[in-house]
Amino acid sequence: MSETTSAQTCTPAIEAERDPATGLRRITRLAQLAAVVRADRGLHVRYSDGPEDDRRRSSLDSESGLELPGLSVNPLDAERWWTRPLEDWLARQLCQYQHLAEKDPTRIAWILRGEICGRGPDCEPLLRDVEPIAVLDASVLVEARDRYERNFDAGRGPADDAGGDS
Length: 166
Description:
Blueprint: H1 3-10, E1 25-27, H2 30-39, E2 44-48, H3 51-54, E3 71-72, E4 74-75, H4 86-96, H5 98-103, E5 108-119, E6 125-136, H6 138-151
Parallel strand pairs: 1-6
Antiparallel strand pairs: 2-4, 2-5, 3-6, 5-6
């Protein structure tokens, strides 16, 4: 048996599940998302009606009513100071804006990359010239929420520490 034939029989080709609404790859596990982020830096998550809808508009600052110069996103690359597992970082990042999808069931969580063109009112990156990468299945969001609540003191801030600094 040749090396090519051996490799093909040892590693079966698995077609990524596709999201029927967007045609994008559907990510169903947090570990799967971590593998994608490790392989491809510069990815972000966005909660919205999806890539097709976002192609026609930018984000809006709801308090001022101003249109932002790009799409409001949350970065998925862990910061250099992060020493915990990547899956912990991803769980935290996914949970930061998950309430947007919970308030409006038409919103989905999707992964994208693009050019950073500014910062939004919460200091979040704004992207333009975006490329949709994947859609997150609801099961990933449930898994992220479970991990976040299990591994973090969720909601705790600097003011909660006696004499702590920020």
